Structures are given as C-alpha cells and as structure tokens.
Amino acid sequence: MTETAYRKLETDVEALEGPGRREIAARIKTAREWGDLKENAEYHAAKDEAAMLEAKIARMRERLRTSEIVEAASGDRAGLGSTVTFADEVSGKEKRYQLVSATDADPGKGLISADAPMGRALQDTAVGDVRTLETPSGPRSLKILAVEQG
Fold first, then answer.
1. E-strand spans in the chain?
2. Residue 127 and residue 97: Cα distance in Å, rounded?
3. How buried is 22 (Cβ within 10 angstroms: 0-12 exposed, 13-18 middle, 19+ buried)?
C-alpha cells in the first residue's frame, strides 16, 4: 500500500482503540447498571459489539504489520495511487478510477485494485494510450484521457 494509505490505516486504528473502545465501555457500564445481566439485552449487545470491535482492530493491526509500503506512481504513467480517466471507445462513456491496493479497493467510490483486471489494464498507461480489456461480454477498448498522480 502507499504510505498515505498506511498512515490513514494507522489513524483509523488509533480512533478505534481510543474513542471507539471508550464509547463501548461506557455502553457496557450503563447497561450493567440496569440490573440482572442474564436478561439484559443491551448489556449482551454491547459486549458483542466490543468483541467485534476488538476483532476489527486485530485485523487492521495485522494489515499494518504485514503491509509493504510502495512508492506511489510519479511522472506521466499510471501506477499505484494514480487516478486514470478513460473512455470506452465503443460506448463513449468516460470513467475515472484511482489505482489502489487490493485491501483499499472500493469500486463504488472509484477505487479499484491495481491487481484487478481493470487495474492491470490501466497500469503503466499514459494519455492517448489505448488498452484492450477482456470482459465476459467481449473485449473493450479503453482510451486513456488523463493520468493524475497523487
């Protein structure tokens, strides 16, 4: 992942470990004060949420531990961290995606994995290049309109 993505993940973990844990601890304390814990749904829900939070923190910490920081792309060619605007030469539709690591991918937000078929097709392209992407409905030609680093 890029250094920026790594730093963001660190910040997210710190937020969960600090304010996130305190919020759940407060909910558990409040629910505990309501009486019998055997039949206290709020208490059990808060405990379950605490367990899910701890599992999420552990997964994120593991990602930080095993991540490899790579340099973001620079220059005029697309790479990890680049945002690429392209047009489908058949439909004429324009799309814009940022190439990110697989763990940061969220196609609905315009973030695609550099390892995905679309990401591989867009890697190492420059403005004016045309790449062919094989899809289940047949090949698509993509014309690169812009490459932004960042």
1. 83-88, 94-100, 111-113, 130-135, 138-148
2. 14
3. exposed
**C-alpha 133, offset from chain centre:** 23
Write down the architecture of domain 83-148 according to CATH. Answer: Roll (3.10)
pTM listed for this prediction: 0.60
Say whether 130 sits in a helix, a strand or coil.
strand
Write the secondary structure of 10-24 as one string of H (helix), E (strand) and C (coil). HHHHHHHHHHHHHHH
For domain 3-66, the question of CATH label 2.160.10.10 is answered with no
Residues 12-21, mean pLDDT to the nearest whole number: 94
- Residue 4 tokens, joined: 């920026």
Both structure tokens of 1: 């992942």
What are the start and end residues of each CATH 3.10.50.30 domain in the chain?
83-148
* CA nearest neighbour of 24 among 56, 61, 2: 56
Q: Residues of CATH 1.10.287.180 domain(s) within the chain?
A: 3-66
pLDDT in tens, 29-69: 988 888 777 778 888 899 999 999 999 999 999 988 988 77
Distance set, CA 101 to CA 44, 113, 115 (Å):
36, 5, 8
